[in-house]
Amino acid sequence: MSHVPGSQPASHGADLGWLYRQDTSESQVVAGGEPQTLLLPMPTAPPPQSAARGPVIILIVVLLCLTVGAVAGMVLLLQSDPRAAASGAPAASNGSHASVGKSVTPTWAKVGCQAPQTTDDAGHPVYYEPEQMFDAKLNTAWRCNGDGIRQVIIFTLPAQTTIDEVALVNGYAKIDPTSGAKRYWEYRRITEVTWTFANGSTFEQSLQDGVTTPQKLNIAAQPGDTVTLTINASSKPGSTARGRNAVLISEVSFSQP
Questions:
Q1: Is 166 helix (H, G, I), strand (E, B) or coil?
Q2: How far apart are CA 147 and CA 35, in angstroms?
Q3: What's the pLDDT score for residue 70?
Q4: pLDDT (tens digit, 9 = 90+) per residue, 49-74?
Q5: What does the DSSP 8-state code read for residue 14?
Q6: Count of CB atoms situated within 10 Å of the CB of 102
Q7: Do 62 and 125 belong together in one domain?
């Protein structure tokens, strides 16, 4: 069968022609004496990579970027608000906001009533000075015999003070060191007071019976160096024992913004 140089043999078919290429470097001579061009297989192209791999890689990169962004945002939030890293800020028992200010200690307290000295179960003397309302000790207290209603206590604060939180323990939180007796329930407990500030602003506070820790009242910031506490109501004595008809305040505290 004769072959025309430069063309592909018909026996391979038109659809297989791409598999061969013409070798131009050298021709072979066949028995008939005619030169014949050698056909060599065409190099096979590498198989195309899967088209589905590209979108998967893009999706993974996007998810990683979103995760890194979320972590970075959380770190910035915690740094900008140190309170968020805390186990939880204490909620106020009353008022519209929780104070996070610093404590203010009165320099003096004026009272119109003070019970005389008594003794504890071991015979040790017990005193009831007004200064014991801000000595940071729950086992000491100011005391006034009777129901205490309309009794007024005036606290003097450092100059240029602004107060946005007040608090008090509304009874005698002491536990007798000798007998272990809990004095809170033996006496009266204060159930309602009024706080009056130097600018004339007043705030009512209702107190829960049975709470032996400071009960807080958060208020709008009030300037001034004096705060007046007026007792409006108290409970009945918890004991009929002699000397238990009295009101006591174990602790009073103030905070400024």
A1: strand
A2: 134
A3: 67
A4: 555 566 767 777 777 767 766 666 66
A5: G
A6: 8
A7: no
Q: How would you class 15 by CB atoms within 10 Å of its CB: exposed for 0-12, middle for 13-18, buried for 19 or more?
A: exposed
245 and 164 co-located in one domain: yes
User: Does residue 93 lie in a domain region?
Assistant: no
User: Do residue 23 and residue 129 come from a single domain?
Assistant: no
Can you tell me the distance from the alpha carbon of 184 to that of 170, in angstroms, rounded to the nearest whole number? 9
Alpha helix positions (H), the chain: 53-80
DSSP class per residue in 43-97: PPPPPPPPTTHHHHHHHHHHHHHHHHHHHHHHHHHHHH-GGGGSS-PPPPSSSSS
pLDDT tens across 140-162, in order?
Answer: 999 999 999 999 999 999 999 99
pLDDT one-digit tens code per residue, 208-248: 999 999 999 999 999 999 999 999 999 999 999 999 999 99
Print the domain residue range for 75.
55-83
Does 219 fall in a domain?
yes
- Structurally, the chain folds into a number of domains equal to 3
Residue 97 placed within a domain: no
Same domain, 224 and 152: yes
Q: How far is CA 57 from the centre of its chain?
A: 39
Q: Is the per-residue pLDDT at 8 higher than 90? A: no
Tokens of 186: 């033996």
Tokens linked to 181: 């007796």
Residue 94 is assigned to a structural domain of this protein: no
Same domain, 115 and 229: yes
Q: Enter the pTM of the model.
A: 0.62
- Burial code (b: 16+ CB inside 10 Å, e: under 16) for 29-41 equals eeeeeeeebebee
pLDDT class of 121 with cuts at 50, 70, 90 = very high
Report the CATH number that the domain containing residue 210 is assigned in CATH: 2.60.120.260
